[in-house]
Every structure is written in C-alpha cells, then in structure tokens.
Amino acid sequence: PQEKGSTFLQLGSSTQQQLQVIFEVLEEYDWTAFAVVTTLFPGYEDFVDYVEVLTDSSFIGWEHRGVLTLNLTDDPEGTRLRRQLREVSAQIRLLYCSREEAEAIFRAAREAGLAGPGYIWFVVGTNLGGSDQLPE
Fold first, then answer.
1. Which of 23, 44, 90, 136 could bridge 65 with an S-S bond, Cβ 3.0-4.6 Å?
2. Quick one: signal sequence residues (predicted)?
C-alpha cells in the first residue's frame, strides 16, 4: 500500500520549563555562578523574575551576578554590544532573546572572545526553533 504523508508536530516547552531544566544542569555540574543576559524581547521581564524565583526558593547557594539588558538598536557595528558583553563577570550566561537577536549577540560574543572554551551560554526562549539553518 502507498503511504500517506506524515504529520510532524513540534511542541515547544515553556520558558519556565526550559529554565527548570537548565538549573538542574547547573546544579548537576556545580555551576553556581551565572549572569542573565536579555534583550527587550517580549517576556524578558517574566524571564528575569522567574530566574529570581528559582534562585530565591532554592537551597543551592546560587551566585546570581546580575542582569544585563541589551538594546540592540542604534549599534549597527556591535561596538557597544561587545563592550557590554565583556563587562559580564560570569562564565555562564543565561540568554533570553529572539532568534535574530541571538545571531547578533553570538557574533559580537565571538568577536569579543566570549564564545570559546570557558564560556557556557544557555539560550532560552520559545521562538528559537523552526529553521533548518542554525546560527554559528
């Protein structure tokens, strides 16, 4: 018999679910110091609030090294972005942004030497999939 086309259903996990898993990974590897990097992408305030909830309600001694909120407009060369990313003291960074913003942020991070060995980035969001092409 001839097969009919299949249906592919992609279910995205919520930002809260993604953060819960990330914090389990951080705990497993004893990576307790981290910073939050966001853009003004819708939902960023909820993201920051939920990180606070997870760290405040935990018995783990998290070392939350602050929140950097990036505004990518009016910085076409990425000069300000590279400087701001260099000022983040944590090697582990939780990033919340759009897919397009992630590409610009990682380009700047590479140029600033912040994307190689020794730096761990967790990108969180419900809008990052759905493309055949992955950013570098």
1. 90
2. none
